[in-house]
Prior knowledge:
The protein is mostly helical. The protein contains five helices and three strands, in the order αααβααββ. It has a three-stranded antiparallel β-sheet with strand order 1-2-3. β2 and β3 form a beta hairpin. α2 (19-29) packs across α3 and α3 (35-51) packs antiparallel against α4 (74-84). The protein is globular.
Amino acid sequence: MVQVREIDQIALDAFGKWSNALFASIRTYNEYANFSDYKDAFFLILKKFLDERKVYFEDPKSKFGSGTIWQADTDTIIQYWLDHWPKAASNLGDADLNIYFYKMPAILWVSDDGKLYSS
Length: 119
């Protein structure tokens, strides 16, 4: 299993931004041998943040920008993200990967005082 360093800094850098900012922040603080390791690190940290209630996602069935929180367990949300991952994506600059992040449900970040923030 891949190890992720600087998780607190990653969260700080990505706070309030799209999920692609989270992916980019992981890359900033962690160098991995291959694209698959970046993907694994992304899902590992996403699971951690969901479990710790540092993030939520908009319900994919609701209107974009509605702020409706997805009422699903962590495993269901992670599986949804995995199921939609672009199978042909093979590198960090892949156009399909960029499109993926913008098609996925909006990430809602939880501040220390419990307020939700999103781009």
